[in-house]
Design brief:
Blueprint (H helix, E strand, L loop, with lengths): L1 E6 L2 E4 L4 E9 L6 E7 L6 E7 L5 E3 L7 E6 L4 E6 L8 E8 L5 H6 L4 E2 L3 E6 L1
Parallel strand pairs: 2-11
Antiparallel strand pairs: 1-3, 3-8, 4-5, 4-9, 5-6, 7-8, 9-10, 9-11
Length: about 130
């Protein structure tokens, strides 16, 4: 089992920055892929970024390329999502996800073996 806890969300003005954290515990050594997804009110969950820690393959949604980056601190078992140049349309609940094998966004999102955090709210005001 893997437990994921997100933090770092909040209210920020457009153009500002936030850094989300995802603290992992449990059998984290088996999670080769992690990522971030988001869900805005009235919309379906969509992928933001995922990364395969084994080979470094990273997937970015077009809407966040050049603005968001993903990183991790192995010592803290924590994954980060640095969000810069935030836009009003980035407003959503952001979820951390982990999977043993795949970082491919659609597979990770639909797999019954994906672990999810509880989400953290990001609100960007104009």
């Amino acid at each position: 089992q893997v437990q994921l806890v997100e933090s770092g969300g909040g209210l920020v003005q457009a153009g500002g920055s936030l850094r989300l954290s995802c603290a992992a515990s449990g059998r984290t050594f088996s999670m080769n892929a992690m990522g971030w997804f988001r869900q805005a009110p009235g919309k379906e969950r969509e992928f933001v970024m995922t990364i395969d820690w084994m080979d470094g393959t990273t997937y970015y949604a077009d809407s966040v390329k050049g603005r968001f980056t993903i990183s991790r601190d192995n010592a803290k078992n924590t994954v980060y999502l640095q969000m810069n140049s935030l836009k009003v349309e980035d407003t959503a609940v952001y979820y951390c996800a982990a999977h043993r094998a795949t970082a491919q966004p659609m597979a990770l999102m639909s797999s019954p073996n994906t672990y999810w955090g509880q989400g953290t709210q990001v609100t960007v005001s104009s």
